[in-house]
Amino acid sequence: MSDVPAFSESEERQALRKAVADLASTYGHDYFVERARSGQKTDDLWAAVGKNGYLGVAVPEEYGGGGGGIGDLAAVCEELSTAGCPLLMMVVSPAICATIIAQYGTDAQKQHWLPGFAAGTTTMAFSITESDAGSNSHRIVTTAKRDGDEWVLNGGKTFISGVDEAPHLLVVARMEDAKTVPRPSDGREVPPNLKPALFIVPTDAAGLTAQQIEMEVVSPEKQFTLFFDDVRLPPDALLGSEDAGIEQLFAGLNPERIMAASFATGMARYALRKAVEYANDRTVWHDPIGAHQAIAHPLAESHIEIEQARLMTQRAAALYDSGDPMRAGEAANMAKYAAGEAVCRAVDRAVQTHGGNGLTTEYGMGGLVAAARLSRIAPVSREMVLNFVAQFSLGLPKSY
User: Fold this and answer.
1) DSSP letter at 97?
2) How confident is the model at residue 240 (pLDDT cuts 50, 70, 90)?
3) Of 50, 150, 250, 330, which is least surrounded by CB within 10 A?
4) What are the residues whose beta carbons fall under 8 Å from the beta carbon of 10, sequence distance 6 or more?
5) Up-side HSE of residue 210: CA atoms within 13 Å toward CB?
6) Where are the beta strands (DSSP E) in the chain?
7) 195 — alpha (psi -120 to 50), left (phi > 0) or beta?
8) How far apart are the C-alpha atoms of 374 and 225, rounded to whole Å?
9) Torsion, CA 261, CA 263, CA 267, CA 268, rounded to 10
10) How far is CA 375 from each of CA 134, 176, 267, 312, rounded to the nearest angstrom?
11) Any residues with CB less than 8 A from the CB of 280 and at least 6 apart, and which?
């Protein structure tokens, strides 16, 4: 008997997908784009998804959630994206923040936060990325120090999603006692190995300022640069234990990759569906353009690539939910890579299928180009995934 858990989807998961798809179809891509272009949020969609319990499917039952796993939450994310109305904050709030709190929070923190995540009434942003660290999370320099019975945060973060719609942030900081050390090659002071601690910070905290980053991506969720200037926090702002270490951080990063993959495969499915509809309807000579292999074969290739990415995503979720973090980490990285490649090719092929119409507002394809391209960059770049696979899966020397 293989020790790899089954990852074919249950009837319950399939029913969940259908229910979410039915709900999302009442909103759709036109709703999403109209809200994004007018500077509005998709709060009513978020509320509807939360009211039906879909945002809380992975929260433990004792806190009012569905008691499912990350695979269930990823299915919700994918179906919303497939309907053309993705919710980026799903990747951040219930997948990363709620998961870490459920695993590492104190009893009081679980009681305080998890029921809101289960109901969809609590939204929390996640703050890890720093401008000088790039993909190297070990180099973050936002620090936390004790001052009496309080904590004080100083530093900065960038490309933080949803700060304008989440009343709290989950901030990854470096404990101040992890001092900088000289780098052997040139003596320059660099941060030592990361000693992370996570803090729950109100977005209106004194000393915290946010600047919006102007983006070309059409999305209701905005990106921000944050500055922490002696932000003082009470003792219980520390999530769990300051000694929880890197395991606490990666408890949220693997779900993030799984959710990002689902977000991307949903977008790819949406683009492919629109391309197939157009290829069936558009007639230039005697037959619909989809009858020609120059159109049909690229779309068929995208269907194969999307299904492969979905399968790897389901495997990653199954491994994570089975409590196998090492293999889940490998699978989650590969799923994210496969999904990023699949969505970029699917969107490009959809635009090409539409011809000039692919860049018109009416057909809604052009706006997907930047959004799809982001899947190759975030939440971890394709190059860093390849580094990971080369080193840990293949046993090649570390290249960075």
Assistant:
1) I
2) confident
3) 150
4) none
5) 22
6) 124-127, 143-147, 150-161, 168-175, 181-182, 189-190, 196-202, 208-213, 223-233
7) beta
8) 18
9) 10
10) 16, 33, 10, 16
11) 288, 290
- Distance in angstroms (rounded) separating the CA atoms of residues 67 and 60: 4
Nearest to 380 by CA among 35, 187, 91, 27: 91
CA distance 33 to 392: 40
All CATH 1.10.540.10 domain ranges of the chain, comma separated, are: 11-123
Which three-class secondary structure state does DSSP give residue 84? Answer: coil
The Cβ-side half-sphere exposure at 31, using a 13 Å CA radius, reads 18
Instruction: Retrieve residue 5's tokens.
Output: 């858990």
Residue 55 buriedness (CB in 10 A; 0-12 / 13-18 / 19+): buried
How far, in Å, CA of 275 to CA of 220, rounded?
Answer: 24
Token pair for 247: 């395991």
For 246-393, which CATH superfamily applies?
Butyryl-CoA Dehydrogenase, subunit A, domain 3 (1.20.140.10)
Residue 400's pLDDT band (cuts 50, 70, 90): confident
Pairing relation of β-strands 196-202 and 208-213?
unpaired
pLDDT at 1: 42
91: which 2 tokens? 């990747």
DSSP one-letter string for 125-139: EEE---TTTTT-GGG
Give the integer Cα–Cα distance in Å for 31 and 110. 35
pLDDT in tens, 128-177: 999 988 767 778 889 999 999 999 999 999 999 999 999 999 999 998 76
In the chain, which segments carry CATH 1.20.140.10?
Answer: 246-393
Q: What whole-number distance in Å separates Cα of residue 4 and Cα of residue 260?
A: 23
- Written as six digits, the tokens of 75 are 């299915």
N-to-C CA span, the chain: 39
d(CA 118, CA 392): 35
- Report the DSSP pairing between strands 150-161 and 223-233: antiparallel
Q: Which CATH superfamily is domain 126-237 in?
A: Butyryl-CoA Dehydrogenase, subunit A, domain 2 (2.40.110.10)
Task: Give 340-363 pLDDT, tens digit per residue.
Answer: 999 999 999 999 999 999 999 999
